[in-house]
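Example record for the data management plan.
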Amino acid sequence: MSEQEKSSGVDLGVDGAERESEFNRLEAEAGGVTTGPNQPIHPGSTEPPTSEIIEPILQMGFAVLAPAWQVSDPECKELAKCYGALIDKYFPEGMGQYGVEITAVMTTAAVILPRMKIPRKLEPKPPEQKPAEGSSNEQ
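Corresponding structural encoding:
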């Protein structure tokens, strides 16, 4: 029985060595997680790499603003890697507190950019002319 169990008057029926042995067994079963019972597990980043965020923006931008350049997907991927590394250098914490705003801007761009060359308003239809009453093609 541990000192804490003795002071509280609770006997869990497991001594410290058994508890440590069970913890080690569970740790090995979980894939070798190296945290202890008092050490929280901090999950890794759930954000996608910056290059994956930038690539579709580049593809849309080139397709809408410079379609004659015919920038290929592999070229956009390489550009995204370079600019992703640059952004990661100056913003190492990722999008951070501005993630929602950046997502809103990117989604807006994804909707609007492909439509940039389309007129915003439909051209008015010319009024239909009714045939004159006296003119008929019948014989």
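Summary line stored alongside the record: The first helix runs from residue 3 to 8.
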